[in-house]
Automatic annotation (TrEMBL):
Its EC number is 1.14.13.39. InterPro entries: NOS (IPR050607), NOS_dom_1 (IPR044943), NOS_N (IPR004030), NOS_N_sf (IPR036119), PDZ (IPR001478), PDZ_sf (IPR036034). This is nitric-oxide synthase (NADPH). GO terms for biological process: nitric oxide biosynthetic process. Pfam families: NO_synthase, PDZ. Keywords: Calmodulin-binding, Flavoprotein, FMN, Heme, Iron, Metal-binding, NADP, Oxidoreductase. GO terms for molecular function: calmodulin binding; metal ion binding; nitric-oxide synthase activity. The keyword DNA repair does not apply.
Length: 302
């Protein structure tokens, strides 16, 4: 009997006239097809303790069974003469690793015993949706980052620095495909017309404005795709208020009050988000406003 580092062990069992090898077999759905279904109590396999239920039989007396049909493998096992010592190579069931150890029994006699332990989980490198590796560390996980265009996470864009028009075009095209695709209108005349309008606006201003319906869709998709948010199951119930047209302090105050009243709902909270215009559209005398209301969502589009 020997021990193998790959989880395969070889055991010697003498086939008896009564009870045979001391175990029953069944057919696996994949090769190798022959597996131990039950170890008979009092049989030779039970006495040695070297074979266990679930073991996969790989070889008998030097004959490989790894690609042999089930009935042929049974014939090879049955044709071994009674009294002959069978050399059987086996491995433990999936998820476990078998190995042999030499130990002393209660009487001080040296004995070979079988040990079975759970296999170590495979160490895999985390990848993004395109199969590209992520630069995760023991203290930082990038698995939940959305990188729809592949590669590593881009460097953080400094505040106030607009995206390059080329990047805006790529993301605008992708967003409009998702938006019209959700309505099963991808490549429709409406989609093509809206895309042409967006391209003209980007060419003129370097960016573009979402319609109210596009803003609502974008907010809901952003929440749905936030993989670390435990509350995103409610994404399709998110209430979006478009307040981008409000520029004066009094108008913004009204929008904030509306947001709070609707969201708090007298204690029965509702998922709510309010979108203001970008700060470039605000009067110079108006300071930048940022509000974070407990359990509510406040959005400043930029």
């Amino acid at each position: 009997m020997d021990d193998s580092s790959d989880g395969r062990i070889t055991v010697n069992i003498a086939k008896r006239k009564l009870g045979g090898v001391g175990f029953l077999t069944n057919k696996r759905s994949i090769c190798p097809y022959l597996a131990v279904s039950h170890v008979v109590k009092g049989g030779v396999a039970h006495e040695t303790g070297l074979i266990q239920a679930g073991d996969v039989i790989l070889e008998v007396n030097g004959k490989s069974l790894e690609s042999v049909p089930y009935h042929k493998a049974l014939e090879i096992l049955d044709k071994v003469p009674t009294g002959e010592v069978m050399v059987i190579k086996i491995r433990a069931k999936a998820g476990f690793h078998a190995y042999l150890e030499t130990a002393f029994d209660d009487k001080g006699t040296v004995k070979t015993v079988r040990k079975t332990r759970a296999s170590s989980p495979l160490k895999t490198t985390p990848t993004n949706m395109n199969g590209e590796p992520l630069n995760c560390t023991s203290s930082r996980c990038l698995g939940s980052l959305m990188l729809p265009y592949g590669g590593d996470a881009p460097p953080k864009r400094p505040y106030g620095v607009p995206r390059e028009p080329e990047e805006v075009i790529v993301q605008a095209k992708d967003f409009l495909q998702q938006y019209y695709g959700a309505m099963k209108l991808e490549d429709s005349p409406a989609h093509q017309q809206r895309f042409a309008e967006v391209m003209k606006e980007i060419e003129k201003n370097g960016t573009y404005d979402l319609t109210e319906k596009e803003l609502i869709y974008g907010c809901r998709m952003a929440w749905r795709n936030a993989s670390r948010c435990i509350g995103r199951i409610q994404w399709n119930k998110l209430q979006v208020f478009d307040a981008r047209h409000m520029n004066t302090p009094s108008e913004m105050y009204e929008a904030i009050v509306k947001h709070i009243k609707y969201g708090t709902n007298k204690g029965n909270l509702r998922s709510t988000i309010t979108g203001l215009s970008s700060k470039e559209a605000w009067p110079q005398r108006l300071p930048r406003l940022e509000y974070a209301v407990d359990s509510l969502r406040w959005l400043q589009t930029s």
